[in-house]
Design brief:
2 domains, alpha/beta, binds adenosine-2'-5'-diphosphate, seven-stranded mixed beta sheet, about 350 residues, single chain, 10 helices, 14 strands, Rossmann fold, about 30% helix
């Protein structure tokens, strides 16, 4: 538990990356109590300065000694580096919140979205996994409904922003857009296809047996864990779309008994981390342009799924900033809950 007279020292691994920059931004914006921050990245970035609370902090090269004196390490530099350095950080006495896929399906590592399963976080947990961005965003909207009725089936389609593939993919989207508008040839280097004026199946590799790609498999298995519904049948199709930031998710949710759209909307309206944007008269529903940079996940198009005449299935459309709720914000909420020594939900 954190002692207010002795606030924690925090390290960010991957501080120069798309999520790392947002981690620092969340700590600043939320006023998370801390005694200092150590910014860690590759040797390429050593000495680079990043602003934090009115000062300029120098990025340091990640080494085996980077975790001396660190209370909490927020990792966002990919699964390989997490596998290599998280054990080192733990041995040095730090607690680790890991944004990579390295430990998410490890039974002894909690996979936490504070609004959905914050009560699964124990104050003595030392290694906590932060979910895949789609799983995190979807679970914020699904959790309040799972408290009304048992979810018995889930079908999803995603509309995923370029920044989910890193800052370089966003730059490629910009360059591709410019090239096409100028009638110039364009060859993508980061993504497998030109994203500008186009969309395509998510760039994660396809599992030849199931036909699902790696992103889809992560979403399915992680959602089952977060919702504690191990056998839940889930189908998902993940698509990369030409927007810079914020993922959209179309959800069709089947329950054990009928659930009226109005009852669902009322539950979503009061739920933490969610904002209902469901104005049928104005045809105004969740959009990436309005979700970008926002902590809240937007939810709308809440209606009965006419594909299921039993009344047991609802559909809705959710958009969330995948760099915030889908990554950095969620990790900082977990860290704050650990420091407060209370279930994450209370601090979210
Ligand atoms: P760097 O900027 O020095 O390459 P993204 O997810 O946006 O691609 O960011 C990945 C993050 O992981 C960056 O901060 C990057 O630092 C960091 N990183 C990549 N390789 C290493 C490494 N070998 N050691 C430490 N940090 C690394």
């Amino acid at each position: 538990m954190s002692n207010p007279a002795n606030p924690p020292f925090i390290a960010i691994v991957g501080a120069t990356g798309a999520v790392g920059v947002e981690l620092l931004g969340c700590l600043e914006r939320r006023g998370t109590p801390l005694s200092g921050v150590r910014l860690l990245a590759s040797a390429r970035s050593a000495g680079r300065l990043l602003p934090f609370r009115g000062a300029m902090l120098a990025v340091e090269e990640l080494t085996e000694h980077s975790f001396d004196g660190v209370d909490i390490a927020l990792f966002s530099a990919g699964a390989t580096l997490s596998r290599q350095y998280a054990p080192i950080a733990l041995r040095a006495g730090a607690r680790v919140v890991d944004n990579s896929s390295a430990f998410r399906m490890q039974a002894d590592v909690p996979l936490i979205v504070p609004e959905a399963n914050g009560d699964a976080l124990r104050t003595d947990d030392r290694l906590i996994a932060n979910p895949n961005c789609v799983a995190a965003i979807a679970s914020v909207a699904l959790a309040p409904l799972a408290r009304l009725r048992a979810i018995t089936r889930l079908n999803m389609a995603t509309y995923q922003a370029a920044s989910g593939a890193g800052a370089a993919a966003v730059e490629e989207l910009r360059q591709g857009t410019r090239a096409i508008l100028a009638n110039e040839p364009f060859e993508p280097q980061v993504l497998p296809h030109t994203l500008a004026f186009n969309f395509f199946s998510h760039n994660a590799a396809i599992d030849p047996d199931s036909g699902y790609n790696g992103e889809e498999l992560k979403v399915m298995e992680e959602l089952r864990r977060i919702l504690t519904l191990p056998g839940l049948p889930i189908g998902v199709t993940c698509i990369r779309v030409p927007v810079p930031r914020a993922h959209g998710i179309s959800l069709s949710v089947e329950f054990d008994t009928p659930l009226a759209a109005d009852e669902a909307r009322a539950a979503l309206q009061g739920a933490p981390g969610l904002r209902v944007v469901d104005d049928r008269a104005a045809n105004h529903f969740p959009m990436p342009s309005e979700a970008s940079g926002q902590d809240d996940v937007l939810v709308g198009r809440i209606r009965s799924d006419l594909g299921d005449p039993s009344g047991r299935t609802l559909t809705m459309f959710v958009v969330g900033d995948q760099l915030l709720k889908g990554a950095a914000l969620n990790a900082v909420q977990i860290a704050e809950a650990l420091l407060a020594g209370s279930p994450a939900l209370a601090e979210a």
